[in-house]
């Protein structure tokens, strides 16, 4: 089976949560991980900075490059991509993980928050993909993985939070279009989304201290991402993947290790859009 040894991953929003978990899984193979995120100082409510994440990556067996990156800013993203490529000799994989969320109705969504979600989720994903492509074209097995949902255009996924749904589906539309646009170049564009809620610091902040009893661990997303990223890029592109389906296709059907102690499958909270 292919692995990620020596591969360079550029992961947005990787100072914590799913992005960091994907980086640590790759680091276990000896990968290089670029932690591209805004958090250089500890957040009042969310644990993790680019520097603590860097320590975690290196402890897991990889090499880390922590960079302060605002994915909305073209010059900053372009410079970060160049620094990553100069440091590690190229970029093999881009993970568009950075995202902003506000589960509010149309009249309850301030335009400042609307702009943030669309600038981070859609613009950030498009911009980072655009700037990574010249490097990915030179890679042996180039992948772009967006942490975004399958394109399920049912009204109940839009009505409660139109602005957020538009922003997340915009990331998925990048997969739909870019997978076909760059198929001949051999760059894979895929999406990955969880079946259930995932236990992250952000989820704790939104759902409260007991929400973890309804969540799977971040490792399920990391393991699913790993399986996608080690596939041949010319053979696996344009897919909208669900974490447990990816594992099942690989023969992994016992998912108990991804649940917290005492939590049963029936207790898990389904995620949005699935």
Give descriptors for this structure.
single chain, 7 strands, alpha/beta, 274 residues, 12% strand, seven-stranded parallel beta sheet
Helices and strands in order, then pairings?
Elements: E1 8-12, H1 17-27, E2 32-37, H2 50-59, E3 63-68, H3 74-88, E4 93-96, H4 111-136, E5 143-146, H5 162-181, E6 188-193, H6 201-207, H7 219-229, E7 240-242, H8 243-249
Parallel strand pairs: 1-2, 1-4, 2-3, 4-5, 5-6, 6-7
Q: Briefly, what is this?
A:
With 274 residues, this protein is of the alpha/beta class. The chain has eight helices and seven strands, in the order E-H-E-H-E-H-E-H-E-H-E-H-H-E-H.
Structural notes for this entry:
- A 7-stranded parallel β-sheet has the order 3-2-1-4-5-6-7, with helices on both faces.
- Helix 1 (17-27) crosses helix 7.
- It contains 8 helices and 7 strands; from the N terminus they run βαβαβαβαβαβααβα.
- The mean pLDDT is 95.
- Strand 5 (143-146), helix 5 (162-181) and strand 6 form a beta-alpha-beta unit.
- The chain is α/β, with parallel strands linked by helices and 274 residues long.
- The chain is globular and about 45 Å long.
- Helix content is 39%, strand content 12%.
- It comes from Sneathiella sedimenti.
- This is NAD(P)-dependent oxidoreductase.
- InterPro entries: HSDL2 (IPR051935), NAD(P)-bd_dom_sf (IPR036291), SDR_fam (IPR002347).
């Amino acid at each position: 089976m292919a692995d990620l040894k020596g591969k360079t991953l550029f992961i947005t929003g990787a100072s914590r949560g799913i992005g960091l978990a994907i980086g640590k899984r790759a680091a276990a193979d000896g990968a290089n991980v670029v932690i591209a995120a805004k958090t250089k100082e500890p957040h009042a409510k969310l644990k993790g900075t680019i520097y603590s994440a860097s320590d975690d990556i290196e402890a897991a067996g990889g090499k880390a490059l922590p960079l302060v990156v605002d994915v909305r800013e073209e010059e900053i993203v372009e410079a970060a991509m160049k620094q990553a490529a100069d440091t590690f000799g190229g970029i093999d994989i881009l993970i568009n993980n950075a995202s902003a969320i506000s589960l509010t109705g149309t009249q309850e969504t301030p335009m400042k928050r609307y702009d943030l979600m669309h600038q981070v989720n859609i613009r950030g994903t498009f911009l980072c993909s655009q700037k990574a492509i010249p490097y990915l074209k030179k890679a042996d097995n180039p992948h772009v993985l967006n942490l975004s949902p399958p394109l399920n255009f049912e009204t109940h996924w839009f009505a409660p939070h139109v602005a957020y749904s538009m922003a997340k589906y915009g990331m998925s539309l990048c997969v739909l279009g870019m997978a076909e646009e760059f198929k001949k170049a051999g760059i894979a564009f895929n999406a990955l989304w969880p079946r259930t809620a995932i236990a992250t610091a952000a989820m704790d902040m939104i759902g409260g201290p007991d929400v973890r009893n309804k969540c799977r661990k971040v490792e399920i997303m990391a393991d699913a991402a790993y399986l996608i990223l080690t596939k041949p890029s010319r053979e696996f592109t344009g897919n909208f993947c669900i974490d447990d389906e990816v594992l099942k296709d690989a023969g992994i059907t016992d998912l108990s290790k991804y649940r917290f102690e005492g939590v049963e499958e029936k207790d898990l909270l389904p995620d949005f859009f699935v």
